[in-house]
Structures are given as C-alpha cells and as structure tokens.
Input
Amino acid sequence: MNNSGSDQKETQNTSSATDNIESTNYVPDYASQDTVIASGNIRGTPFEDSLEILNKPKFNQRILITAASLVIVIGLSGYYISGALTSQKSSPTPTASSQLSKNGTTTASGSNSAPSSSSSSTPTSTPIPASGDISPPANAFIITNYGASTSSSNNDSAIQTAINDAGAVGGVVYVPSGAFKVDGSLHISSKITLEGQNRDNSQFVETGSAVDLLNDSADDTVIDNITLNTQTYNGGHDFGTSANNTLLEHSNIYSGSQPGHFSMFYAGPSGSPAPSPSAPRYSTGNQLYDIVESDEICDDGISWSFQKDGSITDVSQTGSRLALYVDYGNTITNFTFHPGVQATNCPYDTQGFWITPPSQNITINNFLTYGNGGKLSSESAHYSSNININNERFANASGFKMSIGDVNGLTINNSNFGSGNTINFDPTVASQNVLIENTSLANITYNSLSKLNLSCISVSPVSCP
Output
C-alpha cells in the first residue's frame, strides 16, 4: 500500500536479536503531563510494565471495563494448566470423550468444531490498560496449537489459519511468548483480536525482504500486547490497514530502512477512486494507544493518511516522523519524538510531525521533541485549517525549528521552544489567522511578511513581526 506525493514517505529499523528485542526508544515525559503513573515501570525503559492511566473522566470508564475484563481473565486462567501453551501440543492425546481443540475448547467424541459466535470473545475498540503477561481467554485460537513454533523459519500457514478461524467467529488469536518468524504477509480480512501474552516477548518477525508483515482490511480489528518486527531482516510495513475503527495498543513496532514501506501505514479507504488531496475520502475511528515505535527509513515512520476522527495517544517514536496526510478531526496526545539514524542519514525527514494540506481540525496535545518541532507543508491548491498545538516542548535548547507553510487557522498555546529554537513561516500562498500565546519562543523567521497574518499574546522573549 503506497500513497503518491512527495510528502508521503516511510522508514524502518534494524535489530540483531529476534528472540529478545529490547527497545531503545524514548518515553514521553509523563511527569509534566496530565498523567498518573501507577506503581511499577514504564515499558520500553527500566520502568517497564507500568499501568498508565490518563487522568481524564472519560478514561475512568475504560478502567471500569478493564477491571471487569481482568476478572474474566483471572477467572478463566485456571482452565489452562501451567505450561499449557506448550504442553497441549506435546502432552499425550486427550481421551476421545474430552479432547482439547486448537482453540482451547473441549469437544465431545474427539470433534474439533469451532466455537459458536455467541461464545467467542469479540474485539473492543476501547483502549484498555495492560500490564505484564496476559493469559489466553476462553475459546482463544492459540497459534502454537496450529503448529506455530519459535524454531520454525516460516510460520505463515499456521498463523494465517488461526487468523482465518478466529475471523469466522470474531474471536481472539493468541500469541504466546516467543519470536515467531513469518516469511510472507499475514492478512486480517474479518474482525478479530490479535492478543499477545507479553508485549515484549510475543513477537512476529518478518524474514522476507521488503515484505509487509501484517495487513488488515477488516473493521473493528484489535491488536494488543505484541511486538511486530520487520527491522531485523529489513522487511516492509509492520502494519498496514485500510479499515475503520481499528485499535493497535500496548505494542512495540520495529521497522527497518526499506524504501517505500512505512512502519505503520494507515492508508485511508480502499476502492476506486483512490483518495487524494483534491478528492479526499477517509477511514474513520482508528486508534493508536501506548505504542513504542522505532524506524530507520528516510520517509514517514508512522503514516496516518486520510484518517478522520481518529486518535494517537501515548506514543514514543524514534526515527523519521509522524505524517498526518490529508486528515480530518484527529487528536494526538502525549507523543514523544526522537530522531534516530535519520538525524545523520536524512535530517530533512526528522520534522517530528508533518501535516499535509488539506488537513483540518487537528489537535496535538503534549508533544515532546528531541529534534524538530513539526512541519505544516505548503501546496498552492490547498490549505490546512483549524490546527491546534498545545504544550509542545523542545528538549534541546537550540538548533531546531517548527516550519509553517500554507495554513488558515493555527493556534500554538502553552508551549516552550527553548532559548534558541525557531518558528519559521515559509508559505507558498499565506499563513493566515495564526495565534501564538503563552509560549516561550526566542526566534520567529519568515520568507515574506506580506504572506503572514500573525498575532502573539504573552510570548517571550521574541515579539511578533
């Protein structure tokens, strides 16, 4: 899946180990954000396995849902004997009167029928906290029961069969801890939940060069608690989707440097005509939550293209940039950006975020950057509009910038650009109705004052031109 246009790009990351991948990504500065950290540690750092709870009323509802879900998991965990993920395959065959099927259900007389849709676990598109190991729910389609093995160089058929069987009933595909190699592409064509036992240890590793790991065309898919790795063998996209209301959460995404393949590619809707800046069509309601991403591509790391009413929350990215390509009504919250090898290989691609017109109604809250502070690009035929950036912070005092192109309606509020970083206005047509308020900013530059309509309120030490 690829978009045309020079603003649309992509990246990936290389790692040496496939059995144990350790993240080197940076984690958001939660201490300065509206976030409560429970006892424990933050994933991807020495503070691993924390429970991160957004201190917002709407999130309390998610906690209640989660509490109920945890009770269900605990209540059912006794159904699986200790070590059952491996012993179910290696232990003696159960008696015919009580035989264990591939999805963990007990069937009479040795039958191996799939569970009914009424008894299967169905995905939810509500982000939920996760911490530590997750046990397989009842009726889970466990990939090792289909023959997937960490010793195999190609688990494509076993995993794909589990996905297909789960899709028939809207069920859960469960990935035990271990690095499971995949040589081709896995496809989700019906709604499922793909659930790992442990986000760091449950891994799909793509071994095919320039091959996409996981593609989704089904609405309401949930991917949770897993590592997707295309960096070790320099594969393609870790995850690509054209669907709606998907949720990718509590996961690690490691991507290499293969040209033409983004780490995560949210492509917009499929079908003809393809969406374009002149005639946009949107996928709706997609969510990223609690993601550690690392990529090495000289292009977009996370390509969020033709997305409407979606959200990206609690993401730590090391690599290229977050590309918001012709989006509408999306919210980005608690995002930390750190340039990876791109800082040397392709510094132009380390903008932090890149908003391509005609994006509209975009809100960015709590953006911490160790590189540049974002770019609103210019296209003579289109403006971006109603862009709101709140509490952006530069970790480095100087040497970086935010670039503002063609926009009609931009507010930058409660932000800190450090003592020597810059906002540069370089529109092709105009930067109109721009307000900077309650912000520490030392430098404002521009290519043409006649193309700039700017107001400043409580901005220091610089004054508006």
